[in-house]
């Protein structure tokens, strides 16, 4: 089984599987890239309204397909139907938000459930028809790669890459609107149009990905990769790159797993792969990650305790709390009889001199001192010029 | 006896030098729901003026700036910028929004934000190139922020963030600067940097209109003022405007009589 998975992952499991996998990877990249902009615009949840609003469109497109004598399973037709009612759903959310006092989350919840309810009604009607291919419609709920033909996968991959290119072209504009809407509007930009363009791209990626990932879970494809990417970088360009990478990775892993286990819904596997990436990012990212944050917190606690301990000892007191007492013993600043050692005396004197110099600096140059965090642990000689330190020394009692 | 003949309304407040005035506002009225925020405001900004907009909380100062820029819809009135409609004069204006109006956790460096001021010049769908980044750094240098170009904007202090906004406005190379409370909550170094930049751009021929909340410094930093309290209370050279009567009429009980006299005494 492991060998089989490896051959799928390395695109050696036959033409069809490889094409499908490529399509799913492209879809993941697309979701990751476009998701960054809805994430930064703080409208990530609207993709959930879009995806649920596509269901009546899919059902209607199926009905239209069979009424013209086809099987109703033409993917392009179903995508078009999905996009149509998806767009209608977005417009409803926008309209409710702009013309009532209801907040956007309420509008999203209302539109999402109403459209989904309508879709389910239509879907159960289709089930009574005994039409050919109706079973395939269920894959739109939870997604499947097993039913995907090579031609469909090419359509999915090509359309995903097209939306990625459009999003990259408008990256600078989307970023400016998300950061400072007022500034963009003051320059004469039609902010509403950029929002519509962004929602259009979001809609496109949802419609493209529906059959593979399923409408229930596709929201994860546009939210989790950008959320994971945000942990690693402070620059928009890199965030877009990483988010696309993470989405593609999730598509690669999830797509391979579902090729190996055809009964497993592809959407669920892809989402779990994305969740794995998210968890790793959330834990291990260097500056925004949780472990890094904990490490900083502990380091700060130790530094504070050490400073407070030394300052107390300089005045002839015992270190004030348990941590500072222990630190003083570990470092050999005091002996078992609570007497200051020679080393401790030197360290305490030095710390108290540092503190007095910083204090003088802050009172003489309050603005420049803003640049230095008092808890950063810098020695004053290391960050200020020798002349400045000498003059502070003269002015310090 | 004949009833009096009505004469055209425009003659009530004739525009002086409408063709060249950086900003000329007539009858501007803005309301949120049905409560007026600005009522029938007439105002002409003098060329190359440093103009403070002062008034109590809720006087409509920020609303005025936003209405001039078309960010909030006006119920009535018209605005001319250098004698032109706003649509044709956008490139000649730079806007410094309130610092609290944006998301400072956005993934961007100080340099990225300043480069936004160059987007008009760069054009749609074109990338920010090396020369734009260099230009952005030069503008950061002008506000004393060159060392912070690569810093994520959320890691800057409030005053430093304000200076980044100022550098972005400079990058727009505008002739009319509209600033919304740039002095709010900033350190002394930033305050000096803002004043220096205002004087610099004025020397280069620009006009600055700035919402200001600190009556103690208004006479030091500005040469003209508009006192606003939904309606225009007074407008003109700073010493004609900062009088006990006008301040009393705008602020009423919100300023102690002694404070008003002290400010008017400065003015």
Cα distance spanning the termini of chain B: 50 Å
Remind me, CATH topology of the largest domain in chain A? ABC transporter involved in vitamin B12 uptake, BtuC
Instruction: Provide the CATH top-level class of the largest domain in chain A.
Output: Mainly Alpha
The largest sheet of chain B has its strands arranged as: 5-6-7-3-8-9
Any low-confidence stretches of chain B, pLDDT <50, length ≥5?
A: none
3D structure, described in words:
The complex is a heterodimer of chains A (397) and B (267). By secondary structure, chain A is an all-alpha fold. Chain A folds into two domains: 2-282, ABC transporter involved in vitamin B12 uptake, BtuC (Orthogonal Bundle); 291-395, no CATH class. Chain A is 76% helix and 0% strand. The mean pLDDT of chain A is 90. Chain B has 267 residues and is of the alpha/beta class. Chain B has a domain at 103-173. Chain B is 34% helix and 22% strand. Chain B is built from eleven helices and nine strands. Chain B has helices at residues 61-68, 86-89, 110-116, 119-122, 130-142, 158-171, 188-203, 218-221, 238-241, 244-251, 257-266, and strands at 23-32, 35-45, 50-54, 76-80, 93-96, 176-180, 207-211, 224-229, 231-237. In chain B, strand 8 and strand 9 (231-237) form a beta hairpin. Chains A and B meet through helix 8, helix 9, helix 12 and helix 17 of A and helix 3 and helix 4 of B.
Write the layout of secondary structure elements.
The complex is a heterodimer of chains A (397) and B (267).
Chain A: H1 2-9, H2 15-40, H3 46-67, H4 75-99, H5 104-129, H6 139-142, H7 150-169, H8 171-179, H9 181-186, H10 191-213, H11 218-230, H12 236-260, H13 266-284, H14 290-314, H15 322-330, H16 342-364, H17 366-369, H18 380-383, H19 386-395
Helix pairs in contact in A: 1-12, 2-7, 2-10, 2-11, 2-12, 3-4, 3-5, 3-10, 4-5, 4-10, 7-10, 10-11, 11-12, 11-13, 12-13, 14-15, 14-16
Chain B: E1 23-32, E2 35-45, E3 50-54, H1 61-68, E4 76-80, H2 86-89, E5 93-96, H3 110-116, H4 119-122, H5 130-142, H6 158-171, E6 176-180, H7 188-203, E7 207-211, H8 218-221, E8 224-229, E9 231-237, H9 238-241, H10 244-251, H11 257-266
Parallel strand pairs in B: 3-7, 3-8, 5-6, 6-7
Antiparallel strand pairs in B: 1-2, 1-4, 8-9
